[in-house]
Write a structure and sequence with these properties.
Largest interface: A-B, 22 and 28 residues
Radius of gyration of chain B: 18 Å
CATH topology of the largest domain in chain A: Rossmann fold
CATH superfamily of the largest domain in chain A: NADH-ubiquinone oxidoreductase 51kDa subunit
Number of domains of chain B: 1
Radius of gyration of chain A: 25 Å
Helix content of chain A: 40-55%
Oligomer: heterodimer
CATH class of chain B: Alpha Beta
Strand content of chain B: 15-25%
CATH class of the largest domain in chain A: Alpha Beta
Strand order of the largest sheet of chain B: 2-1-3-5-7
Distance between the termini of chain B: 43 Å
CATH superfamily of chain B: NADH:ubiquinone oxidoreductase-like, 20kDa subunit
Chain lengths: 590, 182
């Protein structure tokens, strides 16, 4: 076999110092140059890096952005997440198929286009959307598609298309994230304190992690700082993958300085010299601007050696792009991914604050948490603690999508009721609100008095609204489908359970379920929740578990019972092949 | 008071579970005291003659006859107990599910190495032979099953304890070794 790409691969690997830890970046560059990663390339790359082939194959096969076979010159990824399908993604998908004459997963004969589906790309407020060559297109209409294809064929840049427009959609500015800021002020305030005092200030603010779990930030930093080690890392989790979440897109577009300011302060507090932002692959289009901001901050002395003239504090930030895997939002999976491996969650303990990136103490914080931290150092923990509720201080950036007049990002004070939120966003006739994304909770109208907060309804930011004329359970089914796709496959309850759940739910939705199917559905869901290894699995049954009681009627009306005979078994259909193969005639069978 | 009525059936499998039922040794005398048998290969009664309290079934469902008899059991039995790997999962016969039925039949009767010469094979089509289904189904995918006893086969003790518990309406406590297989 001729290995004609070997030189190219060598050069790319060289660029990253032949460091196995940069396998993701190397793979990304290879895809950029060669279009895909064949087995031949896997073998060459393994050889060049001097690691087993299986380690390379293991990693590249995990991520959806590393194609294993050749793709067309232009790669179209149509987003078919729940909100997108509510807003007509299916029709857009059909229009693409028609315009290109291929189905999803296929490449046109002239090798110009490959058509793929992708899960949420963080544009649910301007759905339906798609990524073409990683450039986002929004608010697509089926009638736009032929023109888009023609334009690309005639050599037009995707970013010059009229649909290539990401609206900011920041609908409500609050006093924490969206307030005006003076770059460097918070850092200077922090540097006037000892690191322990910075953590003390955060502690005073009672700030909790914004990713959804709500772990006290000061405690996390304190744990990390107290670990005996000379090297520590600070990671900013910008892998915003929860369906229906897009608040980090807005923060990273409008307030990147605030994020980097927060990262620098966190680095000072925990004693890290290196900060890494893990940016989801779908947000690659934000990278250029983020790099510019980093360069500017280095120029201003807010990053790099001796920050603000302090001899004893150096800190720099690099950005790592993900490659399209939902589970990498989980902090230990994210760390695995950062180390150039497949994004499978680690066993805990040890926790990342003990042994994280490269086995050193690591604090992983959400984009929004770091913004809050910067603001706290600017205005004081006392000030912050007075906003919000007792156990949920501060504000929350909410990504609102679905059936409402004004989808977009809202910065609201913690403690807002669902009812007030619905009023704010102009939602009427609401059947249900999905709080916290696919893994969150489906809230029924009787609970619309409940509050967005850690003590009541926690959310990483995703709010999806379903009006009364939606077939709610069909959307819950799509959430279940999503988890089947995104399960990393490590543990059986999640890998097999999500598939069983999908099949059982489909059976019920198709009107072929019995009371027994419903009981089985509940049992499978509970087993998945109880037995799965990581947060993805443990929450993957939530679309079912949170609707099966509050929306019991929707299930009940599809259940039929017929003398213990199961609706799913069709004897006539099961006999068809056998009859045809033997060429015999059987009475009553067509 | 009349004795509870029990029926048993065997579908696609090896008859090992019925052997295991017989393996209860001298307790078979107690069994005869305890219950009355209706349709079953054990007594060779071919048709149901009365309503049955407990139906015990072995084997997976691979053809139309299996399916029809299973449905008949569901109709006549108050409680249906599936025993053994084949009834529960399809078992060894379900290994054919990996290959499409048409290919299976063609390999066996038309193209296989044991077919003597070309163009002489025929896929059996006598009307008396049951029609194979597209795949082997576990019993619970065809009718509602009330209880499952795993094992290949479940031991005589497992079957005996389960049956006695069911007849007495008591909870079933099986030792770990009786239901743990690996």
């Amino acid at each position: 076999m001729t290995h004609h790409y070997r030189e190219q691969i060598k050069n790319i690997a060289n660029k990253y110092g032949n460091d196995r830890g940069y396998l993701m970046n190397i793979a990304r560059d290879i895809v950029k140059e060669l279009g895909y990663i064949s087995e031949e390339v896997v073998a060459d790359l393994a050889d060049v890096l001097n690691i087993p082939m299986v380690q390379v194959r293991d990693m590249v096969s995990f991520y959806s952005f590393f194609p294993r076979k050749t793709l067309g010159k232009n790669v179209i990824r149509v987003c078919n997440a729940v909100i997108e399908r509510m807003k007509g993604a299916d029709e857009v998908s059909k229009a693409f198929e028609k315009a290109l004459g291929v189905s999803f997963g296929e490449t046109t004969k002239d090798n110009l286009f490959t058509l793929l589906h992708t899960s949420c790309i963080g544009l649910s407020d301007q759905a339906p959307g798609a990524l073409i060559n990683n450039v986002p297109l929004t608010n697509l209409k089926p009638t736009d598609i032929p023109q888009i294809i023609n334009d690309i064929k005639s050599g037009k840049n995707v970013s010059d298309l009229p649909q290539s427009r990401v609206l900011l959609n920041l609908k409500k500015e609050g006093e924490v994230i969206c307030a005006p800021m003076e770059s460097g002020k918070a850092i200077r305030n922090a540097l006037n304190m000892k690191p322990e005092e910075v953590i003390g200030e955060i502690n005073k603010s009672r700030l909790r992690g914004r990713g959804g779990a709500g772990f006290p930030t000061a405690m996390k930093w304190d744990f990390c700082r107290k670990q005996k080690s000379s090297v520590r890392y600070l990671i900013c989790n910008a892998d915003e993958g929860e369906p229906g979440t897009f608040k980090d897109r807005v923060i990273l577009t409008e307030y990147p300085d605030l994020v980097f300011e927060g990262m620098t302060i966190a680095g000072y507090a925990i004693g890290a010299k290196e900060g890494i932002m893990y940016l989801r692959g779908e947000y690659a289009y934000l990278l250029d601007n983020l790099e510019k901001v980093l360069a500017k901050r280095r120029h201003l002395g807010l990053l790099g050696e001796h920050i603000c003239g302090r001899e004893d504090f150096s800190f720099d930030i690099r950005i790592q792009l993900g490659a399209g895997a939902y589970v990498c939002g989980e902090e230990s999976a994210l760390i695995e991914s950062l180390e150039g491996k497949r994004g499978a969650p680690r066993d805990r303990p040890p926790f990342p604050v003990q042994k994280g990136y490269k086995n050193e103490p690591t604090s992983v914080n959400n984009v929004e948490t770091l913004c809050c931290a910067a603001r706290i150092l600017e205005k004081g923990g006392e000030w912050f603690s007075k906003i919000g509720t007792k156990d949920s201080t501060g504000t929350k950036m909410l990504s609102v999508s679905g059936d409402c007049e004004h989808p977009g990002v809202y910065e609201v004070e913690y403690g807002i009721t669902i009812e007030n939120l619905l009023e704010l966003v102009g939602a009427k006739n609401t059947q249900a609100v999905q709080v916290g994304g696919a893994s969150g909770k489906c809230v029924a109208p009787k609970d619309f008095g409940r509050r967005i907060s850690f003590e009541d309804l926690p959310t990483g930011g995703s709010i999806m609204i379903f009006s009364k004329n939606r077939d709610l359970l069909e959307y819950m089914y799509q959430f279940v489908e999503f988890f089947v796709e995104e399960s990393c496959g490590w543990c059986v309850p999640c890998r097999a359970g999500t598939t069983l759940l999908e099949k059982k739910l489909r059976q019920i939705l198709d009107g072929k379920g019995t009371a027994q199917s419903l009981a089985e559905l509940r049992r499978i869901a509970q087993t998945i929740k109880l037995m799965s290894r990581c947060g993805l699995g443990q929450t993957s049954a939530n679309p079912v578990l949170t609707t099966i009681y509050d929306f019991a009627d929707l299930y009940a009306e599809r259940i039929k019972e017929e003398d213990g005979k199961l609706m799913t078994f069709d004897l006539q259909k099961a006999m068809k092949v056998g009859i045809e193969a033997s060429g015999r005639i059987k009475e009553g069978v067509k | 008071m009349s004795k509870p009525v029990v029926a048993t059936a065997h579908f696609t499998g090896c008859f090992g579970c019925h052997m295991s039922i017989l393996d209860i040794d001298e307790r078979i005398l107690d069994l005869v005291e305890l219950v009355e048998f209706n349709k079953s290969p054990i007594n060779d009664i071919k048709n149901f003659t009365k309503p049955v309290d407990i139906g015990i079934i072995e084997g997976g469902i691979s053809n139309d006859e299996n399916a029809e008899i299973l449905m008949e059991f569901r109709k006549h039995c108050k409680i249906l107990v599936a025993i053994g790997a084949c009834a529960l999962t399809g078992g060894v016969p379900s290994m054919r599910n990996l290959v499409p039925l048409k290919e299976c039949l063609e390999e066996a009767y038309l193209n296989g190495p044991t077919v003597k010469s070309e163009n002489t094979g025929i896929i059996p089509n006598d009307p008396d032979i049951p029609v194979l289904l597209d795949k082997v189904y576990p019993c619970h995918e065809v009718v509602k099953i009330d209880y499952f006893l795993p094992g290949c086969p479940p031991t005589a003790d497992t079957i005996w304890n389960a049956l006695v518990a069911l007849l007495k309406g008591e909870p079933l406590n099986l030792d770990y070794e009786l239901i743990k297989y690996d």
